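#struct-help
A.M.: can someone run this one for me? Single chain, 159 residues.
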Amino acid sequence: MSDNYIVRRFQNSDADEVSKLIIKTLRTTNIKDYSKEYIENDVKMFTPDGVIKRASWTHFYVIEDEKAIVGCGAIGSYWGKEDESSLFNIFVLPEYQGKGVGRKIIEALEKDEYFLRAKRVEIPASITACEFYKKMGYTYKNGINVVDEEQLFRLEKFR
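D.P.: on it. Structure tokens below:
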């Protein structure tokens, strides 16, 4: 593992590798905070075709270390609004967590036009990733620090 991470836009040819990365992360890391049923329901959304579909309505990025994709993340409009955006699908391979990959993804997303045009950026944050996002400057939306009906925290950052 090196410090020479490359962040670039997702290409459809990345879909298989990104799908495997997300599913491995869900089943290895997020399983600590969610039921197997919840995780397997999420897994269904992240097939290669599902990843391509998500990338079609967001600016989706991948991060590579020596030619292997080790993380991903996306940003898009918040319900079509011009002045609000959302971060989505931020995942880091378990063996790369805690090594700055997530930070690099957030930094890339925060340079994207969807971030720069927004007055507010929201993250539907997993229980697993909530503390990481708080370290990156995001706070609980409306001060609500409990999970919603989707078992996610809603975090936000104002610009």
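A.M.: thanks! The radius of gyration is 15 Å.
D.P.: also worth noting: The longest strand covers residues 68-77.
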